[in-house]
Specification:
Layout (H helix, E strand, L loop, with lengths): L1 H4 L3 E5 L3 H12 L5 E6 L36 E4 L3 E5 L4 E4 L4 E3 L2 E4 L3 E3 L5 H4 L4 E2 L4 H12 L4 E5 L3 H12 L3 E6 L6 H4 L1 H13 L3 E4 L3 E7 L1 E7 L4 E3 L2 E4 L3 E3 L11 E2 L2 E3 L5 E3 L5 E7 L4 E5 L5 E5 L2 H15 L14 E6 L2 E7 L6 E8 L4 E8 L2 E8 L5 H9 L21 E2 L14 E3 L12
Parallel strand pairs: 1-2, 1-7, 2-3, 7-21, 9-16, 10-11, 10-16, 11-12, 19-22
Antiparallel strand pairs: 4-5, 5-6, 8-17, 13-14, 14-15, 18-19, 20-21, 22-23, 23-30, 24-25, 25-28, 26-27, 26-29, 27-28
Keywords: FAD, Flavoprotein, Oxidoreductase
Cofactor: FAD
Protein name: Ferredoxin reductase
C-alpha cells in the first residue's frame, strides 16, 4: 500500500503559495508519479504580501514577486485555466477549457479573492481598485505614483491599514472608512485597536469609524464617495479592502463540504463531504481550508495567513503519500505579522478566541507592548507591538495551555501582569473588514441556543 501512494496521479488546483509548497513537498516526500498544477492566473506562483507594502512604495515591481522554488517539483503547470468542478466518483477535475484531468489524489488550494465593491457599476469606475493580484498591485502602484489628490480606503483591516500606511509614507492624503469602532478591531480586539486608531491619526490619516460608504461617485472616473453619516469624501483613487471571498463556487456541485467559510477538512487536511464524511483522496490546504484545532476548542479555523499556507501544504503533502498510521495532524499555531505606521505588529494564537486580555509587558503609551489574550482561564493568544522577541515565550504558554493571566516571569515584568480586562472582540457582522482568523463554530462568549 505504502508503495502505491508514492506513485499515481496527483492534481493540485491552485497555483499560489500553498499549491507550490505542496508540489515541492510531494517530491521531497518521495512521490514519483505524475503531478499537475492548475492555476487560473497566467503567472507562476508569486508572493502577495509585498503588494500592499513594497510594491505600492515603489521598492519592488509586481512582476518581480515570483516565489523562489525550493526545488523543481517536476510538474505540468496548467496556468491561466480555471477549474470548474470535481467529479468525486469518476475522480476527475473539470477545466474551463473543456478538458478534464484524472487524479488518484487531489489537493484543493484555491485560496481567496478580493471581495469586490457590491455595486458592479460603481466598482468599474476608473480609479477604483481591489488589491489581490499582481495586476491589481501594478495598477494601484502606478496610480499612486501619479500623485492623486486623495485616496479613499474602504475597510480598516490589515490590508486596508497597510495601504493607508503606504499612502502616508508616499506623502499622499488618505481617508480610511471603517464600519467598526476602530481599525484592526476584528483581528486584535478592542484594546489594541485603540492604539491602531491613534497611530493612524498621528500619521495624518483621516480615519472615519462607525460609518459605511453608501455610494461611489463618478462619471466614468471615480471622484468621491458618500458616507452613511451624510458626509462626502472627495478623492480620485479608491481602494476597496473589504476582506476576502474563498474560492469555493466551482465546488458547488461536487458534494464536498464547501461554503463561504471555506472547505471543511479534518486535522489531517482530508476534505469532508457535505454529509460530514471524510474523503480519502481529496485534501485541502491554505486560505480556502477550514480545519479543527485542539488548542481552540476544536473550533473550525479559517486562516488567511502566509505561514499557515506553508505549514498546511507540508502536512497535506505528507498525508497524501503516507498511509494512515504515518499521517500527521496540522497543529501549527496561527502566526501573522504586519508592518504599518512604523509599528511592527506580530500575533501568535487566535486573539478572537478570548474573553480577557492583559498587557504583560510594556504599555500602550510607550507603543511597545506584549498583550496576552485568555479564554476561560487559559492563554490563547499574544500580540506584540515592536517587541517581536517576546513572542516565543508566549507561544510556549499557548501550546502548553498555561493559566491566564500569565504568571510573572516574562522579560521586563517582575510582577504579575496588569489587571485583566475584557478583550472586546466584536461580532464580525459589524465590521467592514473580515477577521483574519474566522472561528466557524461560534465566538466563545456567545452561548449556542437550541431552538
Amino acid at each position: 500500500m505504502a508503495g502505491d501512494l508514492k506513485d499515481g496521479l496527483i492534481v493540485i488546483v491552485g497555483a499560489s503559495l500553498a499549491g507550490l509548497r505542496a508540489a515541492e513537498a510531494l517530491r521531497e516526500e518521495g512521490f514519483t508519479g505524475s503531478l499537475t498544477v492548475v492555476g487560473d492566473e497566467p503567472h507562476a506562483p508569486y508572493d502577495r504580501p509585498p503588494l500592499s507594502k513594497q510594491v505600492l512604495l515603489g521598492q519592488a515591481t509586481a512582476d518581480t514577486l515570483e516565489l523562489p522554488m525550493r526545488r523543481d517539483p517536476d510538474a505540468e503547470w496548467r496556468l491561466g485555466v480555471r477549474a470548474t468542478g470535481v467529479d468525486l466518483l469518476a475522480k476527475r477535475v473539470l477545466l474551463a477549457d473543456g478538458d478534464s484531468l484524472p487524479y488518484d489524489r487531489l489537493l484543493i488550494a484555491t485560496g481567496t479573492r478580493a471581495r469586490p465593491w457590491p455595486n458592479p457599476e460603481e466598482g468599474a469606475l476608473d480609479g477604483v481598485f481591489t488589491l489581490r493580484t499582481r495586476e491589481d498591485g501594478a495598477g494601484l502602484a502606478e496610480r499612486l505614483a501619479a500623485r492623486p489628490e486623495r485616496v479613499l480606503v474602504i475597510g480598516g483591516g490589515f490590508t486596508g491599514s497597510e495601504i493607508a500606511s503606504a499612502c502616508r509614507e508616499l506623502g499622499l492624503a488618505v481617508t480610511v472608512a471603517e464600519r467598526g469602532p476602530a481599525p484592526l478591531v476584528g483581528a486584535l480586539g478592542g484594546t489594541l485597536s485603540k492604539l491602531a486608531a491613534v497611530m493612524q491619526r498621528n500619521h495624518g490619516v483621516d480615519l472615519r469609524t462607525g460609518v459605511t460608504v453608501t455610494a461611489l461617485n463618478g462619471n466614468g472616473a471615480f471622484t468621491g464617495a458618500q458616507l452613511s453619516d451624510g458626509s462626502r469624501v472627495e478623492a480620485d483613487v479608491c481602494v476597496v479592502a473589504l476582506g476576502a471571498i474563498r474560492n469555493v463556487e466551482w465546488l458547488a456541485e461536487s458534494g464536498l463540504a464547501a461554503g463561504p467559510r471555506g472547505i471543511a477538512c479534518d486535522a489531517g487536511c482530508r476534505a469532508f463531504t457535505m454529509y460530514g464524511i471524510v474523503t480519502d483522496d481529496v485534501f485541502v490546504a491554505g486560505d480556502v481550508s477550514r480545519f479543527p484545532h485542539p488548542l481552540f476548542g476544536y473550533q473550525m479555523l479559517s486562516l488567511e495567513h502566509w505561514g499557515n499556507a506553508v505549514e498546511q501544504a507540508a502536512v497535506a503533502a505528507h498525508n497524501m503519500v503516507n498511509p494512515g498510521p504515518l499521517q500527521r495532524p496540522h497543529l501549527a499555531l496561527p502566526v501573522f505579522w504586519s508592518t504599518q505606521f512604523g509599528l511592527n505588529i506580530k500575533s501568535v494564537g487566535v486573539p478572537t478566541y478570548s474573553d480577557h486580555v492583559v498587557i504583560a509587558q510594556g504599555s500602550l503609551e510607550a507603543r511597545r507592548l506584549a498583550m496576552v489574550y485568555g479564554y476561560q482561564g487559559r492563554v490563547t493568544a499574544a500580540v506584540t507591538v515592536d517587541m517581536a522577541k517576546a513572542l516565543d515565550y508566549y507561544r510556549h504558554l499557548i501550546e502548553t495551555a498555561a493559566p491566564f493571566p500569565p504568571p510573572p516571569g516574562a522579560q521586563d515584568r517582575a510582577i504579575a501582569a496588569d489587571i485583566a480586562i475584557p478583550s472586546a472582540v466584536p461580532d464580525p457582522s459589524v465590521l467592514s473588514h473580515g477577521p483574519t482568523v474566522a472561528l466557524t463554530g461560534h465566538l466563545p462568549d456567545r452561548r449556542l441556543t437550541v431552538v
